[in-house]
Design a protein that fits this description.
Shape: globular
Bound molecules: adenosine monophosphate, glycine
Largest sheet: 9 strands, mixed
Number of strands: 22
CATH class of the largest domain: Alpha Beta
Distance between the termini: 41 Å
Helix content: 25-40%
Number of helices: 13
Radius of gyration: 21 Å
Number of domains: 3
CATH architecture of the largest domain: 2-Layer Sandwich
Structural class: alpha+beta
Length: 426
């Protein structure tokens, strides 16, 4: 089979790494790729939102299916476009992707289908949003969210009414997130611990992956600014078997009912971000694709052929494949550019990657490029994601940090406490 993967981060590298192990996959193309992806795939330079050129390429090269990594092309309707050209593609339709691209749509969906989530109100004009806040107590916390995609930055956790007023003004009047802030959602602030549960789905059936936990803040002990994610591990012990059972028996069937009633064509991965409040799972958010860096932690535990899973999903037969996961544990540490998530330099040489064997850690490239001598240099904020698999979380932590020490680049930064929470919960 010939496969086209869309995207160029650590997530896409881990997807390609896994697909390349499939005996049925003979050739992988990737747009836009990075300095690691080219080892398993032929790298193209077609913009991920240029559907005309991408579908032309897929037709010319007789691509068997296209796998979409990031959310933006999904939100723009790449799946509907490819389907209209009779091309197979893994990911939800534009309507399905609205579960991520519109927070108000996602909240209304949850309310309609009885899925437990934080209380909310949505507004699309400044005056009504402002009026809503008038009756809010001065010192009561509230969460303000831009409705649309904002690269993970559209959520403001407000400690009091004044902060909420400032956030509403920034989003709706100053347009700091552009059109994404035309509409906003106020949400009850939930206190608890977060866990990410990703599922494969063909729209009629689902299959749960090992639960994972991300580390969103840049600094140790969850301090500093929010990032795309500084590390992840799986399985996360906070997701107890009882919790997974309630997600499996209650929440997921409600989501499938919603898909059917709303005529949502969903063949891909649904990422559900939960807040566990007093033992009960509340849905915080949906993402319509694999998470980054959760995928780099989860896929090394997958024992079944990923390409086989994709084919079953595209044919609506997910129930006919038995998906097997290793019972080991994995820990993924992200090496980032100094300064990230704010300003950082690029083009810095990266040393030591070739000293690491896959048994020690799998090296997934994220923001990397090749210099004129074909050597890897930094090209983004999150540069490398390294994952070790071991018998338990503690051993995986020790293993991955030993491997991390072999990598060097100027101003390299990484968190030293990835997965420590698992030891606390385990
Ligand atoms: P979202 O993109 O909606 O998942 O929000 C990003 C992050 O903001 C989440 O991972 C949580 O850490 C936090 N967050 C979002 N909504 C809430 C909420 N209602 N209560 C507490 N924290 C929240
Ligand atoms: N790690 C969070 C995300 O992929 O959205």
């Amino acid at each position: 089979m010939k496969v086209l993967v869309i995207g160029n981060g650590g997530r896409e590298h881990s997807i390609i790494w896994k697909l390349s192990k499939s005996p049925n996959v003979e050739k992988i193309y990737c747009t836009i790729g990075n300095a690691g992806i080219f080892k398993q795939a032929e790298v193209l330079n077609i913009d991920v939102n240029d559907f005309v050129s991408l579908s032309y390429f897929a037709t010319q090269k007789k691509i068997d299916y296209t796998f979409v990594g990031p959310e933006v092309p999904l939100a723009k309707g790449i799946v509907d476009y490819f389907n209209s050209k009779n091309l197979k593609i893994f990911g939800p339709s534009k309507k399905g992707a609205m579960l991520e691209s519109s927070k108000a749509f996602a909240k209304d969906f949850m309310k309609k289908y009885g899925i437990r989530t934080a209380e909310y109100s949505a507004f699309d004009d400044f005056k009504s949003a402002h009026n809503f806040l008038k009756s809010w107590e001065d010192n009561k916390k509230i969460v303000v969210k831009a409705d649309g995609l904002a690269a993970g930055k559209g959520v403001v956790m407000c400690q009091n009414k004044q902060e909420a007023e400032d956030a509403v003004k920034a989003m709706m009047q100053d347009k700091v997130f552009g059109d994404s802030g035309t509409k906003i959602v106020f949400e009850e602030w939930l206190e608890g611990e977060e866990v990410s549960v990703l599922v494969f789905t063909d729209g009629k059936h689902f299959s749960i992956m090992p639960p994972a936990q991300d580390h969103k803040r840049v600094g140790d002990g969850d301090t500093g600014l929010n990032t795309g994610g500084m590390g992840a591990y799986a399985p996360a012990p906070i997701a107890t078997p009882e919790l997974i059972k309630s997600i499996n028996d209650d929440i997921l069937p409600k989501i499938l009912t919603g898909f059917q009633k709303e005529k949502i064509d969903y063949k891909g991965v649904l990422y559900i971000g939960f807040m566990i409040v007093k033992g009960q799972p509340y849905v915080l958010e949906f993402n319509c694709r694999f998470g980054d860096p959760e995928t780099e932690a989860i896929l090394p535990l997958l024992e079944t052929d990923l390409s086989d899973i994709v084919v079953h999903i595209l044919e609506g037969r997910l129930n006919e494949i038995d998906i097997k996961w290793s019972n080991k544990a994995s820990v993924c540490v992200v090496l980032s550019s100094g300064g990230y998530p704010e300003k950082y330099d690029t083009g810095i040489p990266i040393y030591g990657l070739d000293k690491i064997s896959e048994d020690e850690a799998i090296v997934f490239h994220a923001g990397t490029a090749k210099d004129l001598e074909n050597e890897p240099v930094t090209s983004g904020g999150r540069v490398i994601a390294m994952t070790s698999v071991a018998e338990d979380i503690k051993s995986a932590i020790d293993k991955v940090y030993k491997a991390v020490e072999k990598v060097k680049f100027m101003k390299m930064h990484y968190r030293k406490d990835i997965a420590q929470r698992a030891l606390k919960n385990g």
